[in-house]
Amino acid sequence: MSRPPTLAFLLVTVAVDMLGLGLVVPVLPSLLSAVTGDPATGALWSGWIGAAFGVTQFIGAPLLGRLSDRYGRKPVLVGAMLALGVDWLAHATANTPPAMLAAHAFAGALGGTVTVVNAYIADVTEPPGRAKAFGYVGAAFSVGFVAGPVIGGLLGAADPRLPFFAAAALAGVNALYGALVLPESRPGDRGTSLAWRVANPVGAILALARRPGLGHLTLARFLGDIARMANQCTWTFVMIARFAWSPAVVGAVMAAGALLGAVVSGTLAGPFVTRLGVRRAALVSGWAGAVSLAGFGLAGPALIVPCMALGSLAALGGTATQTWITTRTAADEQGAVQGALTGIAAIAEAGVPAAATAVFAYGVGAGAPGLVLVLAGAVGVASTVVLARAPRM
């Protein structure tokens, strides 16, 4: 395991990343509505801004991963945090949606935080300790998600631009701390090629899929990202449509689920993977996630809590799969592989929301508002089946 200050900084980086996002989520609709003068137009711009981030991250993530292999993790990580701070500062000061879109697209192109953190952990931890370290990363994500909306809502009540200033300040302080304190995890390799033929997103993803033992894991990861995004962008709508929950109830349930996920990831990831083994842990978690998604779409309100428990167990599958992938990757290629994986996730983040919300709208008209989550569960089943066909470690 890495020295505690190093791991602590990486976890703070992830938490700040999610905290910043959580800070602005409650107030972004109000800000865009105020800037555009119309809630409907504001909602459209919100979708375009989010899609721009996904598209530019898809393009930039593989190159950032290779840059971290060539020049080291630290400069890329600090640069990504600075880009995020610029993005939130632009949101806080911009008076037109195109300016916000340009800033968010810029942040997406340089959004290498997750890519580099995962590669950094692979650098500084031995394979037996990676599941525990990646579990801590999952817990940091959840902590940021729990705290962010609460703080953002309070700050936004005073001024809808205030949470963006707060998020920018957090990112800037974290970048400064990283630049001054964070040690480099590897010296870099100037022999790593940055030619477009190997650093372009399509080439990087195809190269990842062709790597021995990683083809099935790559496809399973992509299918899992599709299911995750479908759930992320429609869960609130489904709960309101099925149970007529108020926004307060939805927020409380989401916060409880995120808190449960943080506890499970932070305390059980290591023992869970150690006891079952990486492969079996990934498969058990995959089946749990598929059942959880289908349950949210079909089960009554009394079963939502058990579905949340299954969902927290499913989060351990990401930890297991991440560990599985890093153990099959050479030390000088961790950044390239993590960048390609981020690019794969960006495809889902850019394309799934429109498709998932369309399915939800169809389901509402057909009297089955939970259809989209049932289909997401089916995609989760497909992901787990592909995992089961992956070569043994």
UniProtKB/TrEMBL annotation:
Presence of the UniProt keyword RNA-binding in the record: no
Membrane topology reported for the UniProt record: Multi-pass membrane protein
Chief localisation class: membrane
SUPFAM superfamilies referenced in this protein's UniProt entry, alphabetically: MFS general substrate transporter
Positions of transmembrane segments: 44-64, 76-94, 100-121, 133-158, 164-182, 244-269, 303-325, 337-362, 368-388
Keyword Membrane: yes
Subcellular location per the Swiss-Prot or TrEMBL entry: Cell membrane
Pfam families: MFS_1
Alphabetically ordered keywords of this record: Membrane, Transmembrane, Transmembrane helix, Transport
Annotated Major facilitator superfamily (MFS) profile domain residues: 6-393
InterPro entries reported in the protein's UniProt record: MFS, MFS_dom, MFS_trans_sf, Sugar_transporter_CS, Tet-R_TetA/multi-R_MdtG-like
Family: Belongs to the major facilitator superfamily. TCR/Tet family.
Full protein name: MFS transporter
Native species: Dactylosporangium vinaceum
